[in-house]
Amino acid sequence: MSTRPDRKPGPRTDAKRRRSRAERRSMAKRRQAVRRSAERRAGQAAGTARARRPVWPIVVGIGLIISILVATWSDLTLLVSPYRSAVDTLRQHVLYVEPGAGHVDTAAIRRTIGVRPIAIEVLRPGSAQAKHPDKACAAAVDRIDGLMVAVFVGGEFEYGCESDDLPLTVDWFGWDFAQWSIISTATGYLNGDVAAQVGQVVMRYDANVAGGSLIDQRRSFSVPTYRYLVAGGLVVLVVAGVFGLRAGLGRTVRVGARALVHRSRRRARYAELDGELAEIALIMVELRPDAAGAAADRLGRLSADYLIALSDSQHADRHTDLDELAGRIGALRDRARALDAA
After folding, report:
1. Average pLDDT score over residue span 245-274
2. In 3-state terms, what secondary structure has residue 293?
3. How much is the average pLDDT of 146-171?
4. Residues 268-327: tens digit of each pLDDT
5. What residue spans of the chain are helical by DSSP H?
6. Is residue 87 a contact partner of residue 143, using CB atoms and an 8 Å limit?
7. CB burial readout 72-108, b (16+ within 10 A) else e
8. Alpha-carbon distance 105 to 102, whole Å?
9. What is the pLDDT of residue 301?
């Protein structure tokens, strides 16, 4: 049996082996680059996590501020309301008379109402409050508990309403409509005499109490607790605003300072890289352009890589990885020096 002689590897086989080794080295380098990038990102994320401050104090502070705003919103909006003077007066008195509303027998009205939960607003015709008597009435009952309010404009009954917590024993809608309709009819022939019309309102209140549709209550004039909450809330808001402004300004200054330092460092790094590129260019200029063989090939690859690095340096921005660029430029410098020494 004849045997075939062993075939020696030819040039094509050697080229394939060299190409295969080059591909393996390239893949290994890529894996190392990916691994280093992942480790770098992980380190940055870990550093960020370690530097992160607890957020629960901020959440608690925001929740406290929101709670205060919700609890005191009606009184806060009253600060810019045209009905502020009326509401503030009715908190401590049974009668509010708008300046310019005309003569009103205030003493008689106070005696008639006594300690019943009834309040009277007498408004000047044509005033901002008189244009919307329903809103003037609602402004009072929305902020004063257990109160009936009758609004008079120009000596005539215009509108009536009551607080949501008025102690009724019957359906609110039917009672409200009947109550104020009867009062409007009863006061129709008493126009101009506010004290007499208030007497009709009081009589209607007493009739409802006697009929059992309304539970009698005695009104006590005192500043409600939430008024102190309003004052405390305003103090808290002011203090929180001052500290928040201080913290915000301090953070802004720190961020700005860090940005300036970072920018100056990058500029210095750009200058260093430009200097290294200039050194490489000088070495390449001094190299013999008529080199042949391997030296010419190495010089050609060096020139191509240099142009790429130069372009990357010229187009670098804040997202550019300067460490990677500096590594490439350093490798180019070493290659240029090696060619120069050869």
Report:
1. 77
2. coil
3. 92
4. 777 787 777 777 777 777 765 555 566 677 777 878 888 888 887 777 777 777 788 888
5. 11-51, 56-78, 84-92, 106-113, 133-141, 172-186, 194-211, 225-286, 294-314, 322-341
6. yes
7. beebbebeebebeebbebbbeebbbbbeebeebebee
8. 10
9. 82
CATH topology of domain 70-222: Diaminopimelate Epimerase; Chain A, domain 1 (3.10.310)
Query: 101 to each of 119, 253, 264, how far by Cα in Å?
Result: 16, 57, 72
What does the pLDDT read at residue 203?
Answer: 94
Q: Where are the domains of the chain?
A: 70-222
Q: Which residues lie below 8 Å from residue 218, measured CB to CB, with a gap of 6+?
A: 115, 116, 117
Residue 170 CB neighbour total at 10 angstroms: 13
Q: Between 322-341 and 294-314, two packed helices, what is the crossing angle to 10 degrees? A: 150
Best mean pLDDT range from 20-34, 194-208, 221-235: 194-208
φ and ψ at residue 148, rounded to 5 degrees? -105, 135
What is d(CA 26, CA 328) in angstroms, rounded to the nearest whole number?
A: 16
Mean pLDDT of the chain: 77
